[in-house]
Design goal:
Elements (H helix, E strand, L loop, with lengths): L6 H27 L8 E9 L2 E4 L1 H10 L3 E13 L9 E12 L5 E12 L2 E12 L7
Parallel strand pairs: 1-6
Antiparallel strand pairs: 1-2, 3-4, 4-5, 5-6
Length: about 140
């Protein structure tokens, strides 16, 4: 039996898609061109997992990003979903998933995946959780 989503959920999905496009444009422009400002996009208590390494708090996240070599990100895929239910109460929260290519210090481009959990804080979006993973080619897979 076919079930349709509610008008309210459809509105939230549309808003998640629009927000994800705007947010990722701002995020990667900041990361690649104005990295010294990147912490403004994170919640004070945010968590970043970068290739399996955990960093907690926006000040530590800022230091981590600042210590990496210059980068150039290209986004190829983007997906966003609203998070609903008692876990987030009435807090407007979206899961944003990104795929693309990143180049550090003019080296060879590598594929990456990144997932954000973002929440509305007044008229701004803040990153609650950020998980970044460079995709390495598998070798000797039998």
């Amino acid at each position: 039996m076919l079930t349709f989503i509610s008008k309210d959920l459809k509105t939230k999905i549309d808003q998640a898609c629009r927000t994800a496009e705007e947010f990722t444009k701002l995020y990667y422009e900041s990361l690649d061109k104005r990295r010294y400002l990147i912490s403004r996009l994170y919640l004070d208590t945010a968590t970043l997992i970068w290739n399996g390494n955990g960093i907690e708090g926006k000040d530590n996240i800022q230091k981590f990003w600042t210590d990496l070599p210059p980068s150039d990100h290209s986004v190829f895929t983007l997906d966003a979903q609203p998070i609903t239910g008692p876990e987030v109460a009435d807090q407007l929260t979206f899961l944003v998933k990104v795929g693309g290519q990143v180049k550090y210090d003019d080296k060879t481009s590598k594929s990456f995946n990144q997932s954000f959990l973002i929440a509305a804080m007044g008229d701004k979006w803040k990153i609650v959780s950020d998980c970044f993973r460079v995709q390495e080619a598998l070798e000797n897979v039998n």
